[in-house]
Specification:
heterodimer, A: 372 residues, mainly alpha, disordered N terminus, disordered C terminus, B: 185 residues, alpha/beta, four-stranded mixed beta sheet
Chain lengths: 372, 185
């Protein structure tokens, strides 16, 4: 089965010639504006790439990275030039050191219908190289019986090995794409739905979380023109939309919080070894958790939402500011006010503020201890 | 992280309730609705989640995900992926079947990769349309073939392969049955 990646370039570059010479390009194509398109068999490339004089020992990952570079020349030069506010000149062309150069800020690959089968793996190769790529369907060239997919990614820098832990997926590119091709917006859902669903399920009752999930992305789609494409990730923006929706479900939110207080007090109860005191302590714990929840519940909405994004979602000040569309200083002052109000209702040495409760079950994704 | 917000942190539902991943069906139906709303198209070829689906454990679940897509042609339900440095969960489908993969370990329901267990305790059976093409692709992508494609007593054609960490996969092509419609999916 052919594993093809079509690589597009505006220039007839050395790499393309080299690929052809190595029989890695069974079907070189040229489109009418001089863009070279090479269909490359990744399976062959994995073995053949060993012979590249500049890249001995390198594997398919590097090969794909080269594909990205080739693609960049074509696409950045056309319509993605300003997607991440980076000049084409920064790409490190020509390709003498492609593999070892930091990758460009914006990369796209077009992959044909054969490659549809391997797109996710290409995606993962790039992910591991520090690129984060996602499928964006391109409206172009459908008429030629050629249905390209555009893999779009961006990166802000990398080490020599191509690792870049700070990389964020470029939702901006997908959102721009969706202005002309609405279906491209599905990728935003694919990237963020599970995180947003988790956020909603923490804040409101499960049935409400399920129904609000769709609303978040529908509203995001309707407002996509207002997304600031200077931001690579749409996640804070989506958190903001979700927060607004939660604000319209105050009762569900309050019930969720109260249910958690009830669970927490039972947990505190179970922490005690002295059976005789259990009843009294249990009552204390219940009162204290209840007091805390009351205090959270009566926080001004803006403070409560800020608090929850910070404490439950572990978002940074900057991301919270982006989510709620306020300055970072406002996030800080809201948290300080919330801190003071909550401190007032908590006695020192109480069970509530005491040692942490261990979760009853193994956590699928233990968020505890994830330092920012 | 420990600060004055610790009590609030302790109220977070994930610490108080068992933290299992959400029902894939919720994400799928939400996605289907979204795509239908924004494109006006209601066609979604994808099928609902089956009532039974297994979960496989890997030391390196991202490598496994990449391999299963590349070598065995499984398709990831991207919207369902739950990413976390401590382990990513992913759902992969083929035809009307779904499997879930995640990281192995004592905190992952005690699931163990065959690499660590030194034994295989299950096999995933998959029907494909063209088992020989599937086999060629698996070979080209580096799968370990346990048995070559062969016709079986009852007419199906099948082969067996191991994935990166030794989970055993059985791929078969159904013999066309006279009393069934030729086009099934």
């Amino acid at each position: 089965m052919g594993a093809g990646v079509a690589v597009w370039s505006r220039r007839d570059v050395d790499e393309l010639v080299w690929l052809q010479r190595r029989d890695l390009v069974p079907h070189p194509l040229w489109d009418d504006d001089g863009v070279a398109c090479a269909e490359v068999d990744l399976g062959v490339a994995a073995g053949e790439f060993e012979g590249h004089p500049r890249c001995a020992g390198d594997q398919v990952e590097q090969f794909v990275a080269i594909g990205v570079h080739l693609a960049v020349v074509g696409w950045v030069a056309r319509d993605l030039r300003c997607a991440d506010r980076e000049p084409v000149d920064a790409l490190g062309w020509p390709a003498g050191n492609l593999v070892h150069q930091p990758c460009p800020p914006v990369c796209t690959i077009e992959a044909n219908h054969l490659a549809r089968q391997v797109d996710p793996s290409t995606w993962l190769y790039l992910l591991r190289r520090g690129h984060v790529v996602s499928l964006v369907r391109s409206p172009a060239r459908r008429s030629e019986g050629y249905s390209p997919l555009v893999l779009a990614s961006s990166r802000t820098g990398s080490d020599a090995a191509g690792n870049n832990p700070t990389m964020t997926p470029s939702d901006a590119i997908a959102i721009k794409e969706s202005m002309s091709d609405p279906a491209a917006f599905a990728v935003i859902f694919d990237r963020h739905a599970s995180s947003l669903h988790r956020f909603l399920a923490r804040r409101v009752e499960p049935a409400d979380a399920d129904s609000l999930l769709g609303d978040v992305f529908r509203i995001a789609f309707e407002r996509r023109a207002s997304f600031d494409t200077a931001r690579a990730s749409a996640r804070p923006w989506l958190y903001g939309i979700a927060t607004n929706l939660i604000a319209r479900h105050r009762r569900s939110e309050a019930r969720r919080l109260r249910a958690m207080a009830s669970l927490a007090s039972r947990r505190s109860d179970g922490d005690h070894d002295v059976v005789g005191d259990r009843a009294a302590q249990s009552l204390d714990a219940e009162n204290e958790w209840s007091t805390l929840v009351d205090a959270i519940d009566v926080l001004p909405d803006a403070e409560r939402h800020t608090l929850m994004l910070y404490v439950w979602e572990d978002l940074s000040y900057e991301d919270i500011a982006a989510a709620l569309d306020v300055p970072v200083g406002t996030v800080r002052s809201r948290l300080n006010r919330a801190r003071r109000r909550l401190r007032d209702v908590q006695g020192t040495g109480s069970q509530v503020s005491g040692r942490p409760v261990s979760p009853r079950c193994d956590s699928e994704h233990p968020m505890e201890g994830t330092a920012r | 992280m420990s600060d004055e917000f610790d009590p609030v942190r302790r109220l977070r539902p994930d610490g108080l309730l068992p933290d299992d991943p959400p029902d894939l069906a919720v994400l799928m139906s939400s996605r289907r609705q979204l795509v239908s709303d924004i494109t006006g198209s209601t066609s979604d070829p994808r099928l609902p989640t089956p009532s039974i689906y297994p979960r496989l454990a890997y030391r390196d679940e991202l490598a496994a995900l990449e391999f299963l897509v590349r070598a065995f042609g499984l398709v990831e339900r991207r919207e369902a992926r739950m990413e976390h440095p401590d382990g990513t969960l992913a759902w992969l489908e083929l035809g009307n079947g779904v499997i879930m993969i995640g990281r192995s370990g004592p905190k992952r329901h005690g699931l163990t990769s065959p690499v660590d267990a030194g034994a295989i305790t299950s096999m995933i059976n998959v029907y494909v349309d063209d088992v020989d093409a599937h086999h060629r692709r698996a070979v080209a992508e580096g799968a370990t073939i346990q048995s070559e494609p062969e016709d079986m007593l009852w007419g199906d054609r099948r082969y067996e392969a191991l994935d990166l960490e030794g989970h055993r996969w059985h791929f078969a092509q159904r013999r066309p049955r006279a009393n069934e419609a030729p086009q099934r999916h």
